[in-house]
Design goal:
mainly alpha; about 120 residues; flat; 4 helices
Length: about 120
């Protein structure tokens, strides 16, 4: 989180604990949605639901991607969204770096699966 002397300056007439401004109505709700990391939580939920649906569809029909391929597709995205969430909530840089490193490792895993075919 930014130090008080490093706070961002936003348009006058609004209030938010992280910024030297006053936000009202929908702007305040959206600012809070992003500042708390809930936007990343929503993206994670969608990613997990997509992966589960793809695996269930494959198991029921035999069509589509195999579960390992779904995992290879989903893991890098999940790790990147975790890095985004850590950055949004002001986590220490090692947490952001760890999530980015995990995203890279998951990407390499996915490449390995694809190049084996």
């Amino acid at each position: 989180m930014a130090q008080p002397s490093q706070r961002m300056k936003l348009p006058s007439g609004c209030h938010h604990p992280r910024y030297d401004c006053v936000l009202k109505g929908r702007d305040a709700r959206m600012a809070e949605f992003f500042a708390t990391g809930h936007v990343a939580d929503l993206v994670l939920l969608v990613l997990v639901l997509e992966a589960v649906l793809l695996v269930v569809w494959h198991r029921r029909t035999g069509r589509g991607l195999a579960p390992a391929a779904v995992l290879g597709l989903a893991l890098p995205g999940v790790a990147l969204v975790l890095a985004l969430r850590a950055a949004l909530v002001g986590a220490a840089w090692p947490w952001v770096a760890a999530a980015l490193t995990a995203a890279f490792a998951a990407h390499l895993f996915d490449l390995r699966l694809r190049l084996r075919r």
